[in-house]
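Q: I'm writing up a methods section and want to include an example of the input and output format. Could you take the sequence below and give the corresponding predicted structure tokens, formatted cleanly so I can copy it straight into the document?
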Amino acid sequence: MKLRQPTDFLILEALEDKGRNVATNLAAHTGKSRKNINTRLPVLEDYGLVRKIGPAERSGLYEISSTGKAALIYQDQYDEADDFEALIEGPSAGTEQGDPQASFARGETDDESDE
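A: Here is the clean output for your methods example:
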């Protein structure tokens, strides 16, 4: 996972703060160009950090995913982490250790780990 800083984190923060949105509004919220935002959104979607949503297939409406929320939690560790993707995805299934805040951000609950 290769994120462009600070743009990608600004996009994730705007989606977290403002909710689902389109590139034009995200450009205004982040101070980046709409072209730049339109270039980065599909990349962030490929990484699983955002989801394209909306009634139309070609809709440009995006929302942050639970993995994107976890990325924001660990944003300050991006430069130091050897494997940022593994960091935000958390420990392997079946282990009970991990960061409860990141697990919460990813939508995981204690009930799911007991199944």
